[in-house]
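Anyone else keep sequences and C-alpha cells together like this?

Example one:
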Amino acid sequence: MKKLMMIQAFALLLCVTTLAQDKKVAVMDPVGSVPKTIMEIVREEISSVVVNALGYTVLERSLIDKVLQENKFQMSGLVDDSQISEIGKRMGANFVLVTSLTIMENGNYYISCKLIDVLTARIEKQKTGRSERGSNDLIDIVDKMVGEMFLSSTRVSDGRKYEEKTTQEPTPKYESGNKSNLQSNSVFTVFEDLGLAVINKPLGSGNWENAKTMCNDLSIDGYKDWYLPSKSELVMIFGANNRSYMNRLKSLWYWSSTEIDDNKAYNVMQNAWATDEKKRDRGPDCICVRKLNR
C-alpha cells in the first residue's frame, strides 16, 4: 500500500513539474525574398520578445542550425506544417515559430507569423501585419505582433507573478511644494496617483542618447522639466490600466533612462510591462514625463 502511494505521489510530482516547465520554442529564420540583414534583425527581435514571455524558452540558435544541417533541411523548403512539426520534434521543441516576409510594390513589408504545435502540427497562433514606412517601422510591427501572440495572452492565462530579473528601483517620490494646476489635455495626460504627467504622443524612435536629449529639450505649456522616465516609472505608467492613454501608444517598446552598462539601457514593453536590454544605438520609441508638484 505504501509503495503504491509512493508511486502515485511520484507520478503527481512528475506531472506538476512537467506542467511548470517552460514551453520550448524554435524560432526559425524568416523566409521571403528580402535582404539577409532584414531577416536576421527580424529573427532576433522575435527571439527577444519570446524570451521575455512567461512560460516560454527560446531554443539556442546553434541547436537549431545543427538539427537542420544534420537532417539536410532548409527552412525555405519547409512549406508544409507537418514537415515543420517533424523538424521541431527533432529539436526537442514544443512549438516552432515561422515567419514570412514579403516586400510589396509600395516598398512596405507584409509579415506573417505562425506558431506550430509540434505534437499536432496544428497552428496554435497566427498574426499578420504590414509596415507603413518600409523598413523604418518594420521592427515595431514585428514586436507588436509577436508580443500579442505571446506576452498579452500569457499574462492573462498564467497565474505566476511577473518578476524582474534585476533589483526593482524605488518608487519615485513626489516633489515637495505647491500642488501643480497641470491638467490633462490633448498634449499630455496626468497620472495623479503616480505624481506624473506623461506626453500623449511618443516622440519617435531613436537611440538612447537622442531619447534623453529630446525629453530634456521638450517644452510644453511653459513646462521645461520633462525627462526620459526610469524603468520603474515606465512599468508603473503602463501598469496603471489607463486604457484611453494606452490607446494613444502605437509602438510596443519604449526607452527608459535606466542604464545597464556603457553599451546598454533598459526598454519597457507597453502591453505586457516586460523589460528588456537594448544596445544604446538601437531605436525603440520614447515618451517623456515630468513630476507633479505636491
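And example two:
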Amino acid sequence: MKNLVLSLSILLGLLAWPVLASAQGASGKIGVINIQESIGKSGEGKKAFSELQKKYQPREQDLQRQQQDIAALQDQLQKQAMTLSDEERARLSRDLEEKQKILKRASEDANTDFQGDSQEVIRRVGQKMLRVISEYAQQNNFVLVIDNAQIPVYYAAKETDLTDEIVKRYDAANPVEGGTTAPAATGGASTPRPAAPAAKTPAAPKPAKP
C-alpha cells in the first residue's frame, strides 16, 4: 500500500471552481491560475494537509497491519495446502475471507473520511483564495481569470499566470501561525497529489487437493 500522500487533484474534482470576471471593460487583461496548485502552495494549505497526514497515519498503519495479516494467512494456505486437513483448510479460508472483508470496509471508511476532511480544507482555503483572486483581478484590470486545470488553455504567456502572485498575496493576508512559510516555487511546479488511505485486498487462494 502506498504511503498516505496529499491528493488535491482527485479531491478538487469534487468542487466546481467558478470562472472569475471583473467589470473593467473589454480592454482589460485575461489571466490564468491553477487553483489546485495555489491551495497546495499556500502556507495554510500546506499546514492543513500536513495535519491531515498526521491524523490519518494511525489508520494507515492499521490498514498495513491488516494487509500483512492477510498476506501471512494467504502464505500459510499456499505453503501448507498439501498437509492441511479439509476442516483446517476450510477454517483458514473462512478466516481469510473475513479478514479481507474487514480490510475492505476499513479501507473504504478511511478513504471516505479522508476525502471529507480534505474537501473541507479545500473549501475553507478555496473560498478565501477566490476572494484574493477577485480583489487582485479588479485592482489590476483583469476582465477574466480562468482556472487552467479546469478549462483547456492551449497557450498562455508566462506573465498571464497568476498562480505564484496569488499564493504570495494569500499568504500575506492569511499568515500561518507558528512560523514562517517557505516562498512558493516558481515555474509551475506540480503540487503533491494526495491519495486517501487505501489497501488492496488480496484474493483468497484456491486450496489444493491433497
